[in-house]
Structure formats: structure tokens, C-alpha cells
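Ligand-bound model needed. beta-D-galactopyranose.
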Amino acid sequence: MKRNYYFAAAAACVLSVLLSGCQRTDSGESARLQAGVACYNQSDVFISELTEALREELEGLESRGVTATLTLKDAAGSQRTQDDQVKELIDEGCNVLCVNLVDRTDPSEIIDLARENDVPIIFFNREPVAEDLMQWSGLYYVGADAEQSGIMQGQLAAQAIQEEGNLVDRNRDGVIQYVVLEGEAGHQDAIIRTEKAVDTLKSQGISLEKLSYGVANWNRAQAENRMTQMIGEHQNRIELVLANNDAMALGAMDAYRKLNITEATFPVFFGIDGTREGLQAIVDSRMAGTVYNDKEGQAKAMAELAAALILGEGMEDISFEKEKYLYLPYEKITRDNVEEYLDR
Ligand code: GAL
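Prediction:
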């Protein structure tokens, strides 16, 4: 009788593992992951889409025996607020922190708090400087390579100019008059994207004339404002708009629309991110191209790393760069392949 009981229990156990594919803690309980997510600003479109993807990925960990909860805090642009929020997250019992720094050069207070309480941090999207990440072994970064996104934007623009010639170079002077809409000063993705996009265009033999630039902090309304000013200064001379992200490219288009400028004299617009609205603008042929900032890939990498950290196993299966960094590749999107990205 007793033997049968043990046999039945063992069989049930094997069956449940086979059915669920689960990894359980030693006690057989599912492991608890309480993720504290601190964002620099939830009104940032890409960040809100990224945290949505992270929520889904964390839910998906259930099938691996990890029950995850997510508590989200929005610093609304203040590093001081974020420092306090991280303390609250730790006090509330979070056992992994995902931090999207407000000021990427100022993570010391957060790192000290996390280290004192032995709670690892996955920084994401806003990359701390290397020395800061070296301060403690429990610090990681998940993001993407800014340089690659700039190169890809430059390649997309070069291709459009080479293929569509006079449609872009409307005054047919053999030079492309362009403006740039830049993200926050000091952000790893702003300056580098601009530089690399422009270098790539030049390396493809395209002659350029920079008419102007505006800093619009990743924000659609600010970009509309800057673009309205630039249109005022340069009227219909602007042939190309390189925006460091989709939200700002959309803001630039808003400016043209609101000024009732005829579409035939619109410049060609390029963004980066592939947000929902950005993709729609490509479907509608309002934006010529964008570069996919793989939020699902980044969210998955964060969820898997968080799970490995609390389970204490699986770290060896993660391919880090320099033991701490995970960079997800960017992808080019045009009208030709946009459909593939719509249902992600
Ligand atoms: C960039 C993204 C921008 C903005 C920024 C915030 O990677 O392209 O749209 O979200 O991060 O840090």
C-alpha cells in the first residue's frame, strides 16, 4: 500500500513537471518574483510600450514556475523622486529592481540602497556609465546599441534618396537639405543616433546641407513646436527630417499638417522605435522608414534575467557582453516589411 502511494506520488510529480515544463523551488513551491520597476517618465511613448511588454513577459514566467508581480513607479523626470521610489520598492519587498534612470550619470544612491538590501538591479534603456555598473556584482543593463540605430536610419534614408531621387531632392540641386530632431541632451541614444545617421548618408556619397536642428526630448508636442519654428525659418527648403525617435517624427508631421502645407512639398521623415503610432505612419506612407527598437526582445531579456537572479540558476545560459550587458539588435522597417511588426 505504502509503495503504491509513493509510486503514485512520484508519477504525479513527474507528470506535473512534464505538463508544465516548470522549474520549482526546492520546496516544490513556485518561486516568487516581485519586480519593482522605476521609470524615468511614463508619458514617454516607447517606455510605456516597453513596460507593457515587460508585464506580459513577467506573466509568461508562470509556465517556468515563477509567480511574478510588477509594481511600477513613475519618476516623471525627477531623479530625486526616483531615488525615493526605489527605496519604497525595496521596503515593499521587491526582490529585483528594473530601473530606467532619470539621470543616467547619477545612479549612486540607488546602487547603494540596492546593495545594502542585496536586491539586484537591471538597469534598462538609459545606460549608466561603465564605472557605475562596476560598483557591484548585482548590477546589469538591458538595452540596444545606439550606434546601430543611427547607422540603420542613415541606410534607410540613403536608400530612399538613391531610389526616389527627385522626390526627395525636390529643388534638384544635388544636395539634400535636412533638419534633425534630437532627443534629450546627454542621452546615449541622442547624439550618437544623429552622428551615425549623418555619417552613413555621407559615406554613401550623398551630399547634405544641415539647415537646422531642434532638441525635443523624445516628445511629440515639443517636436511639433521646434518643427514649426524651423519651417518658419526655412519654409519649403527642408527636404529630409531625421528624428531620433518616432514620437518626434510624428510631431514634425503634426507641424506640417497644422500649418496646412501642401503634401507635395513635405520633406521625407525618418524615425526610430517602431511604436504603434510610428508603424501606423509607415503603413499610411506618412513616414518613409523607422528602426525597430525591440521592446519585446528587451522585455524578454529582462524577465529571463530577473527569473535567473531569483532562482539562482540559468545565468550561464544568458549571453552577456562583458558579463553585465544585454544588447538587443535593431531592425530596419519600411513599407515593404511593416506588416511583420504590426502584431508583435
Ligand atoms: C530611446 C527611445 C526613445 C525614448 C528614450 C527614453 O531608446 O528611442 O523614444 O523612449 O529611449 O530613454
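Residues 243 and 249 are 5 Å apart (CA to CA).
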